[in-house]
Amino acid sequence: MIQKIRVVGGIAVVTATAEFHPLRQLKQLATELEAIGFKGSVLFDLLAVNGLAENRFASINFTGKQFDRNSFAVESDVNQNIKSEQDSFARNDETFLLGSVLSSSEVEKFTH
Predict the structure, then answer these.
(1) How far is the C-alpha of 90 from the C-alpha of 107, rounded, in Å?
(2) Half-sphere exposure of residue 51, counting CA atoms within 13 Å on the CB side?
(3) How many other C-beta atoms can be found within 10 angstroms of the C-beta atom of residue 3?
(4) What's the predicted TM-score (pTM) here?
(5) What is the SS3 assignment for 59?
(6) What is the pLDDT of residues 62-93, one digit of tens each?
(7) pLDDT > 70? residue 1
(8) Is the distance from CB of 18 to CB of 48 less than 8 angstroms?
(9) CB of 73 within 8 A of CB of 46?
């Protein structure tokens, strides 16, 4: 099962799923990040909703209370360890992959 939020080296990694599109639920997400005392960069893995497109990853800064919407950016240079972990989590969760926007041929290529 994919974790919705996990903190890796000072970065909060938020994973979208078929049921959870984090960019559409920033208010709820801000409440959750504030509850765990997080402040810093939030990296969104949007594989489930954007597929393997160039806009798979996006980031935005979190002040500890709210998101700084002016800091929003599509990320093309994601830390390789984080990307590898995210790919591994996705590859090992068939339910996640089936609920994603990936076609069956994209799933096949992604998992092999």
Answers:
(1) 10
(2) 9
(3) 9
(4) 0.94
(5) strand
(6) 999 999 999 999 999 999 999 999 999 999 99
(7) no
(8) yes
(9) no
